[in-house]
């Protein structure tokens, strides 16, 4: 009854950060009862439409019996996840990876849901200060992890991203049971 919705960057697609890490985690987490759904936007890069696509994904999962959903968004998708989460009681947490600040100013609305922000320290596309700013806007419970040596794609710290994300998701859903 637990699921992750993987929310992509502005260009859409399914790869996500760290060379397709979302697909790897999805395959592993299903073995412990956590399902995954990936969102492909109708209009990539359009925040209102992408938010509606994400809310439609939540609605679909609700219709087939899921009770707890975490949104994991990458880059633009982090802002989509932050925007969508407050509109669904089924959404119990948000992970925003290499997130933009644009359209994430309502991060405080994510609470009382859990929020995890992961960002590469040497990201030149969206600097780590973006996640630091979002963290300052957000209410508890919240966590910020800046990854040394990580750029926007987080390829160079894939193992660390995997570890943090896997651990956080398992812990989060265990609390929900």
Descriptive report:
This protein is α/β, with parallel strands linked by helices and 177 residues long. The protein has a single domain (2-176), classed as Alpha/Beta hydrolase fold, catalytic domain (Rossmann fold). Helices cover 38% and strands 22% of the residues. It has five helices and six strands; from the N terminus they run βαβαβαββαβα. A six-stranded parallel beta sheet has the order 2-1-3-4-5-6, with helices on both faces. Helix 1 (17-29) runs parallel beside helix 5 (158-176). The radius of gyration is 14 Å and the shape is globular. The model has no long low-confidence stretch (mean pLDDT 95).
Summarize the helices and strands and which ones pair or pack.
Blueprint lengths: L1 E6 L9 H13 L4 E6 L7 H17 L4 E7 L1 H9 L6 E7 L16 E7 L8 H9 L4 E6 L10 H19 L1
Helix pairs in contact: 1-5, 2-3
